[in-house]
Amino acid sequence: MRQADYDGSHEQAGGAMRQVEGGDAAPKGEERVLAHFSISSEPGNERLAMQQVTDAVQELALPQRTIKRLGTAVAEATMNAIEHGNQNRAELPVEIQVLASEGRLTVQIVDQGGHRPIPDVTTPDLEAKLAELDRPRGWGLFLIKNLVDEMEVGGDELHHVLRLSLHLEGAASDGQ
């Protein structure tokens, strides 16, 4: 896990979802914005985020397996932002930006919870969970980390930032 910086340039919004124009061309090697939107911090809105992100990456013609991995990681990360970062306060937006560059796809998820360390990602104990010796939740970070190639965490005193990246070289050969 690497440290991600928050540059403060993201627009704030309070509605259920706001789409900001994307798809801007970028010079070779630089990130271009495929989508930038906000969702309100309400349970279930992680599905809206997942759909918006998977729609935004369609132009990249990625294999379905890669799109599903990305969608699941985005949904888990957005759910964490809604629940832990914004405390399910609907008036606090979760901002999501989808960026593409040569060889890399990145989704940045920003909540209003301020930068805080996140626990080390550990492998959940399936046996203990099934035996109800461990709480049934707690799979999120494990899933996210194992569904993407890189996960960076950062932020500032007001924002918590999670950057999920996929390496696109060889993505076409990961199966449909």
Overall description:
With 176 residues, the chain is α+β, with helices and mostly antiparallel strands. It has a single domain, classed as Histidine kinase-like ATPase, C-terminal domain (Heat Shock Protein 90, 2-Layer Sandwich), CATH 3.30.565.10. Strands 1-6-7-5-4-3-2 form a seven-stranded mixed beta sheet, with helices on one face. It is globular, with a radius of gyration of 16 Å. The chain starts with a strand and ends in a 9-residue tail after the last strand. The C terminus is likely disordered.
Topology of this structure?
Elements: E1 2-4, E2 17-20, E3 32-40, H1 45-56, H2 64-85, E4 93-101, E5 104-111, H3 126-130, H4 140-147, E6 150-155, E7 160-167
Parallel strand pairs: 1-6
Antiparallel strand pairs: 2-3, 3-4, 4-5, 5-7, 6-7
